[in-house]
Design goal:
alpha+beta; Penicillin V Acylase, Chain A; 5 helices; 13 strands; six-stranded antiparallel β-sheet; seven-stranded antiparallel β-sheet
């Protein structure tokens, strides 16, 4: 997952609205989002190579999403797969603060990450690139491959557009999907310096990344209104068929 924006208790009709792009090599085996056969209250895609998932929800109102922290100089060759952090939270019943507190002590086992976890009451943020963790208060946020709300061009641009879309009483999911399909490359003067070189910084700067073997494979929108009505819309690029597929799910939270 390389870009996620969300509104937590920042819209009159919705408790949580999330839009996320997952960027990955096209050859990496992946399963599209579905209710998991071995945990039928968990909705998420699956990383069939490393295990776990990049973003998911449960019928009971749990939510988690992870992004990689881009720092090639600190990459470990035998690190634990980061997608397990999302899966383990969604399978558990631990409160967000208890879970991220445990993650802090395990951080050295993983390559750099940013993890957001939430239950119906609270949301927490943790990264293994700085000490501790923090609560996420109501508001509109953006996260890419640096820390929470680091104003990379695509983060700042997407947050601005997201805020404009959310002024509507009923946010337009087509407009959100269009927002997450932005191909604009940032000017060189605004690019971050993460250690991958200027050519890669340019290629990775759009909201929606397109390269021959790597790019934005999945765009997901998740919305939960104040009555517990949930909607999950996922658009996935099929590199074999060379076209997008769309999956939609709707349900009501089971804890209400």
């Amino acid at each position: 997952m390389c870009l996620v924006v969300w509104a937590l208790a920042a819209h009159p009709q919705y408790r949580l609205i999330v839009a996320a792009n997952r960027d990955e090599f096209y050859a990496r085996p992946t399963e599209v989002s579905k209710w998991w056969a071995d945990h039928n209250s968990l909705l998420a895609g699956r990383d069939l190579q490393g295990g776990g998932t990049w973003m998911g929800v449960t019928r009971g109102g749990r939510f988690a999403v992870i992004t990689n922290f881009r720092d090639p100089s600190s990459e470990k060759k035998r690190a634990t797969t980061r997608g397990r952090l999302v899966e383990q939270f969604l399978r558990s019943e631990e409160a967000p603060d208890k879970y991220v507190h445990a993650v802090v002590s395990q951080g050295e086992s993983y390559n750099g990450f940013n993890l957001i976890v939430a239950d119906p009451s609270r949301m927490a943020y943790v990264t293994n690139t700085q000490p501790g963790w923090s609560w996420v208060e109501p508001g509109i946020y953006g996260l890419s491959n640096h820390r929470l709300d680091t104003p990379w061009p695509k983060v700042a641009r997407t947050k601005k557009r997201f805020s404009e879309i959310l002024r509507s009483n009923e946010p337009d999911t087509d407009a959100i999907m269009d927002m997450m399909s932005d191909l604009e490359t940032a000017p060189d003067k605004d690019l971050p310096v993460t250690g991958v070189g200027i050519e890669w910084e340019r290629k990775l700067s759009p909201v929606f990344i397109q390269m021959p073997n790597y790019g934005t494979r999945t765009t997901t929108i998740f919305m939960e209104d104040h009555t517990g009505r949930c909607t999950w819309i996922e658009r996935t690029w099929d590199p074999v068929l060379e076209r997008f597929t769309l999956h939609r799910y709707a349900w009501h939270r089971t804890d209400l």
